[in-house]
Amino acid sequence: MIYRPVPARLPVPAGLGRFSVLTTVFVCAACGLVYELELVALASYLIGDSVTQASVVLSVMVFAMGIGSLLAKRLRPRAALGFAAVEAGLALTGGLSAMALYACFAWYGQTRVPLVGFSLVIGILIGAEVPLLMTLIQRIRRQDAGGAVAELFAADYVGALVGGLAFPFLLLPMLGQLTGALLTGGVNAVAGGALVLWLFRRDLSNRSRWALVALNGLVLLLLAACSVLTGPFERAARHAVYGTDIRVAVQTPVQELVLTGGGRSGRPLSLFMDGRLRVSGGDELRYHEGLVHPAMDGPHRRVLILGGGDGLALREVLRYPGVTSVTVVELDKDVIRLARTDQDLAGLNHSSFRDPRVRVVVADAFGWLRGGHDDPDPYDVMVSDLPDPALTPSTKLYSQEFYGLAVRRLAPGGRLAIHAGPIGTRPRVFWTVDATVRSVGLDTVAYRVHGKDGDPSGGLDRTTARRSAGRDEAGDGRPKAWGFLLASREPVRLRLPADRPSLRTLTPVTLTAAGRAAGYGREPGLLPSTLMHPRYAD
């Protein structure tokens, strides 16, 4: 049986009614894309590996949209009422999705199943919109199906463009994930409800009309209440994730920074970036002494540090009086600010950024190496203190192209020290970094430095400890070893410099053992990672 839309009894001229429907299509499309981007962004932050998470969210949503389109066929005889119900459900589900996912992560440590569930439900509801809107616009003025589809999809695509641009440039920086999603849900509910209750109100019985008013009012009231409670909710969720001794929590344009412990808490200072433990005061000395000092064996007048905005690698470099200049290239200026102004973090890095030999550049390391016109002289030592290569945003910083740029800035006889990720639990990632560095003409030597025994997480829960970046983790969540590479155009010898300062964790004997331990697990035959063919996986 073929359903033929009955002409609607409108309170306005047909032209204005048609414009109202297309405007609603525009608004709903913008809201739908915001929901998709919000799920992708939140999943990438909570789970990691943004390529995989984006693929899961988008593929599930597109599949679900097909299901929603089929299910909407049953609603076409009552298209106005069905569209209002779909928009109310979409506003509620999409608006609360960020808060629900964050709650699942904070209190249950599980986000993958809820992520798929929200993607499926939101996709079904978005998919049901188009058939119902097509029916509504056909009821206003009969026209050929091709013309109606063209108008409908034009409004839909333009709305998606606006939503796609509004999310990163307006909603996320100004309102954040939670409030942005809730506000989008409110706009979605108002747009869908207003269209039906105003333009198609004559299609509704009094009972249906009041039921829609109550439903949309309840949705808006719930979204508004959650919006008011976002502050206490975020604080409670952070305490569940990081513990109760959070001292600093700030969302920068680049990442979320959380500082715990230190001061009077009696716990080691811990710095988290996007939920991953980057600095633990309990064992950071082992990491930074292992990263920096083997590279200082040789000329070290000019030093470049890529990353290292916490100032801890810089602290070790500045212990050598022969160093005349150090350039630190850090993407997030707020990390630098925190390292300079926080009393405990500045105490840990010995206020290294106040040293007159230090020059700070706020820039992407790849882009800065590619330009580098502000400091063209080569460097004797380069220290790559960057996030784990298995994290998708860091892949380009461990690519053949990146190391090719680095080689151009390396002085004759210069050394490049690289934090290459955990060598024990993800050996393929580590040895792929090694293959990539060798592919640009550098000789390398690998070594692993063990973290100290005990709980480095400062009393944080095990879920949090396991999310530490750049660490070799065992089942108990404790970091076991960091993997490093020392590279140079000349044959590399793994040793400590004769003029080294007093070191607390590293000796010639332990360094030799670190090199020997790393060599046992070498994986030969791996191909280098490039921008067009990244070979790292989280």
TrEMBL record:
Recorded catalytic activity of this chain's protein: S-adenosyl 3-(methylsulfanyl)propylamine + putrescine = S-methyl-5'-thioadenosine + spermidine + H(+)
Domain PABS, first and last residues per copy: 230-467
EC assignment: 2.5.1.16
Transmembrane segments: 21-47, 53-72, 84-109, 115-137, 149-172, 178-200, 212-233
Region (Disordered): 451-477, 519-538
Enzyme active site: 385 (proton acceptor)
Pfam families membership: Spermine_synth
Pathway: Amine and polyamine biosynthesis; spermidine biosynthesis; spermidine from putrescine: step 1/1
Broad enzyme group: transferase
Membrane topology: Multi-pass membrane protein
Cellular compartments annotated: Cell membrane
Coiled-coil stretches noted in the UniProt entry, renumbered to this chain: none
Binding site for spermidine: 288, 310
Residue numbers binding S-methyl-5'-thioadenosine: 255, 330, 364-365, 393
GO molecular function: spermidine synthase activity; thermospermine synthase activity
Function in brief: Catalyzes the irreversible transfer of a propylamine group from the amino donor S-adenosylmethioninamine (decarboxy-AdoMet) to putrescine (1,4-diaminobutane) to yield spermidine.
Family: Belongs to the spermidine/spermine synthase family.
Name by which UniProt lists this protein: Polyamine aminopropyltransferase
